[in-house]
Structures are given as structure tokens and as C-alpha cells.
Amino acid sequence: MDKILILDFGSQTTQLIGRRIRDMGVYTEIVPGDAPLSGGLLEDGADRVRGIILSGSPESVYEAGAAPDKAIYECGLPLLGICYGLQRMNYDLGGLVEPLPRREYGRVGVTVTGFEPAGGGSGPSGGSGGPGEAVRRFLEGFPSGSGENGTPGSRYFTSWMSHGDTLTRLASGFRQYGQSDNGYPAVVIHESRPWFGLQFHPEVTHCEGGLEILRAFVFGVCGALAAWTMERYVEELRASLTARVGDNPALLLISGGVDSTVAGALLLKALPVDQVHLMYMDTGLMRKDETETVRRALEKLGARHLHIVYCQEEFLSALQGLTEPEAKRKVIGDLFITIQEREVRALGLPDSYFLAQGTLYTDLIESGKGVGKKAHLIKSHHNVGTPLVDAKRKAGRILEPLDRLYKDEVRRLGALLGVEGEVLRRHPFPGPGLAVRILGEVTAEKCNILREADAIFIEELKSRRSPETGNCFYDDIWQAFAVLLPIRSVGVAGDVRKYGWVLALRAITSADGMTADVYPFPTGDLLEISTRITNLVKDIGRVTYDISSKPPATIEWE
Ligand code: XMP
Fold it and tell me: What would the CATH number be for the domain defined by 440-545?
């Protein structure tokens, strides 16, 4: 399969480059900017690298910025430098890069030249003596955007930029094809090598025509074939899993979330079902009917060895008397490890078994820093770093079959493998479960109260539709849940004075959980949901709606 390799120098938007190109049907792989190219990066089995993109970076080339393996300039593949990537290429090849007196940031107009003047249309000139065929195909991707400046043979569009350095002298062989409104180089192309550079970010949606520019590089210049489909990927995963696992057992630790359920579905599809063991712990801190939902979903997928460990009593007694959030988390984390090891031992699997996890691509990427420096295992998940996982990793017996996929690709994969839509649409749920949604001491009684209230809230979100989008609220919301506060307040029920618990509802929209906005419910819906909760859950006397965004608040309350 053709792929585009992305060298990550740490820009916030590196992942976006990968996403955009995968959306075009071409497989992408992000590797650290300074990764050595020898050792298989360019010859990876059936995959064929068709081009290399050098990402942006928060650093400067003349300071701490990382440099790519010089072999990229010898390998003959097309290169596209974006922002720092362009500056890097220019600097490495003998040009000069210096700080700007004032950063170029946000929407900036760019004039691109090198097209045939009007009369011959405004297509790129490609005749003899003009730019080569690759240049012509690349320039074809540039939009004739809004605010045409009218210069014959040029196009004008609004780009999106974020840089404090600029090219002050072009390296030998580079020629400027585009200039920003501020007079700085914006598009630079080598005259004889397939090397292209953009000072702006075509991967950012604010960049007019950015997708087409990327397309022009991927298809026009690199000639990549769009062969990245989920069906094909499943076949490849299946073959590699079978080859790696052989006839050894594979044990997957299931949390009930989307990732681990899809990983389970994949193992069940790829390996003989009798080789697949799935283990799930019911800590008593789960949502209403969660364990049954997980059981049903996995059995439907063909699971034969599903080990559900019921350990509510152990968790609740360990949590007794604890009110500090960190103390609660520590007790839960430690107990999780103890029980997991005990139960895995009890399964009596041979030492040769493989341990599987639902780690995603984004879990491997430390936010904002890129895959680069922190190459493995950042999953914020209670399985991470447990002695069991560490030992298996050391022994080379960890399976992470989703580690090349983004979240929405995992959902697509799950749908293809027959995972229920209900499971795939589920909102994220934290490892410590309801313990971080019951402020103060966690008791069985409070877990039950919260479970009931939360279930009503979620049921209402699934049955009510947003007047704006027409979707049910649940699908428009990234995460919604109820929180039980450690306070009671006065109310009336009939003629009787009532002293009930206070419940907070939280609903947020987010792209990745790193930041979050409050979901703006129509007031009528909030009022009706609140009434239904206080009518049905007698211990709750008052309902509030959390209107804090993240930052400054976090999504969870503890
Ligand atoms: P916060 O509360 O930090 O949450 O804004 C961000 C996202 O992470 C989830 N979360 C957790 N997930 N173990 C997890 O597996 C945890 O300890 C944990 N704490 C928060 C939270 O639900 C939200 O999606």
C-alpha cells in the first residue's frame, strides 16, 4: 500500500496533516522528525513510501529544532516542508532562516505566481523552459481564492500561518513561487529536485483550498494510490496478528469502552475464538447495566472465554472512609493491579500468552509534542504501566492492534466488525468510574443513587433531539454524566420537609477532552430532565447544571 511518511518536528497540527491525507484514502505514518531513515522506514514490507512531509515545529532551525536524517535529501522521494519543515529544508541545504520582526499569525493573503497569464487561462505554465511537470501539478492545487489580486499569471488566496522565522536567503536551486501580503516567501520550490515548501499550514481548515494543495502533493507529485480502506486494513491486521500470535492464547483486558471492545472484536475475528480470552472487572463503580451491556456486546461478537470478575465488595471496602480524590484514585489503581494479577494467574494461561490492549494512535502521541520523543505508551488508562503490562512488554508479548488508528477510524473499524452502534457511540468513561463522580466518601448506597440519576440523564439525552442539528443530544455531546455532591439541601415533598442530595449534571462538547465547552441546552429540556430525575430518584432533592468550561474546570469533578 502506498503511504506518505510524516516527519514530526512537534507542531500542534502534525496529526491534522496525517488525518487529512488518510481522509483522501492514502495511508500516513507519523514518525519522529529525527528518525533514522535506514532500518526499514522507507522499505516497510508491502508498504511503499511515496513522499515525505516535514511538519511544523515550535522551535527555530537555528536553535533547538531537530534535524531530519540527511538521507531524505538523497532518497529521491518528493519532499514537502510545511512551515518549520520548509525552513528546515532551506537551512539544511545552505539557505538562511532568521527571525521576523513580527510573527505572521492567522489568516494571511498569499500570491502565487508561475501560472500561464490570462488568455492561456490561469493554469500553471508547464512548457519547455517553464517549471517541470511536477511543479505544474503541484501548482494546480492552489486555489484562485477570494480577493483575486488580478496580476496576470498569478493566483491569490487566504492562507493560515503561524511562524516567527522566515527564509531570508533561499538555498541554491530553490525558487520563490509565492509571497505573503507582508512580503515574505510563502511557497518555495526546487528547480530540479521534487522538493516543495509552504510557509503556511494547508492542513488547517482556515487555509483556503488547503486540502487541494495537499492533494496536489500526494496525488499529483507523489503519484500515491488511494488504497487505504478499513476493509483492507482489517485483512492486514488479521494476517499480522495470526502470524505473531501463532497458537498461543491472547488475553485482552476489557474496560467496556469503545477502544477495548473494538480490540476484542478484532481479536475474535483474527484468531480462533478459543485462543481469545477477555477479562473485564466489575468494580462496582460502573454505570447502570454496564456489565450486562459489555457481556452482551462481546458474546454477540463470538466471545467464548469472557471472564467477568465481580469485585465490588473489595473496591467498596477499600474506599471506605476515604474522601480525598487522590487517595481514592490511588486505592483504586493499586487494587486494580492486585486483582488483575490475581485473576490473570487464576486463568492458568501458559507463560507464552500475549497480552492485548486497545491503545490508539493518539495514545502514543503526547499531546502537542508529537510521536517524536515519547514513542510508546502514554495511555491514560488503568492498564498502563501495571507490572503485568510492563513484564509482557519486556517479553515482547504485547498486542496493540489499534495503535495505528485514530478514534473515528476505530469507530469505523468497530462498525465493520459488527460492534453494536450503541457501544461505538458511547461517551468516554474514566478508569476510576463513579468514584470520581461521587464527591467525598464512596458508598454502595451513593453508587446506586448516582447510577439511577445518571441513567435517566443519559436516557433523556438519547431520546431528545437538538432543535439546531436534529441529532439526539447524546450524539452531539462529547461527554455527559451526573455527579453526586457531598451535600444535602432542604426541599419539600408534598407537605413534608425533605433533605435530599444535590446532583450536578455535566455535558460538554470537545474534540479530544483536552479542552471542553459547556453544552448549551435549551432551558426547557434541562428543566424537564431535572424534574424527571427528582421525581424518580427520591434521594435527590435538587439538580444543578455545571456551566464551567475546561479550562479552568476539568471535565470530571475529581
Ligand atoms: P479531565 O477531568 O481531566 O478529563 O478534564 C479528561 C478526560 O479524561 C477522562 N478521565 C479519565 N480517564 N482515568 C481515565 O481512564 C482517569 O483517571 C481519568 N480522569 C479523567 C475524563 O472522563 C475525560 O474524558
Answer: 3.30.300.10
